[in-house]
Write a structure and sequence with these properties.
Largest sheet: 8 strands, mixed
Radius of gyration: 15 Å
Number of strands: 8
Order of helices and strands: EHEEEEHEEE
CATH topology: 2,3-Dihydroxybiphenyl 1,2-Dioxygenase, domain 1
CATH architecture: Roll
Strand order of the largest sheet: 2-3-4-1-5-8-7-6
Helix content: 10-25%
Distance between the termini: 29 Å
Number of helices: 2
Structural class: alpha+beta
């Protein structure tokens, strides 16, 4: 077997940021943080303990986030983010396998390069090439 590209993040839409933050905080004890206007009020969800580099300490756990459905209609369903070493190569692989890239690669400050795609079943999934950690 070759090298795996793990699922490292989940995403879900919200209509009301306060309501979604309160729900997941109360129901599951997650830390919810609005990243602010510059980041489109993306709400990060801390579901697992992290280290000083914001990486999860327990293998197999992931954190996630919530995006404002009013700002993008790209996906009304939950989605996952897959870690890749080279986003351009991964995009080529997605297309070669029958998927479709959605939009352009975006640079997420302090995180890395990100882009969404639709798989052969119509699911929206994302690719993330993380910044080098020094």
């Amino acid at each position: 077997m070759g090298k795996f590209n793990p699922v490292v993040h989940f995403e879900m839409p919200y209509e009301d940021p306060k309501r979604v933050s309160e729900f997941y905080s109360k129901a599951f004890g997650w830390g919810m943080n609005d990243a602010g206007e510059a980041m489109g009020h993306y709400i990060t969800a801390w579901t697992a303990e992290t280290d000083e580099n914001r990486m999860v300490k327990t293998p197999g756990t992931i954190n996630g986030g919530f995006y404002d459905l009013n700002q993008t209609q790209a996906s009304k369903e939950p989605s996952v983010v897959i870690s890749v070493e080279d986003i351009n190569k991964a995009m080529e692989n997605v297309k070669a396998a029958g998927g479709e890239i959605i939009g352009e690669v975006q640079d997420i400050p302090g995180i890395g390069k990100w882009v969404s795609f639709r798989d052969t079943e119509g699911n929206r999934v994302s690719l993330l090439q993380a910044n080098e950690r020094g």
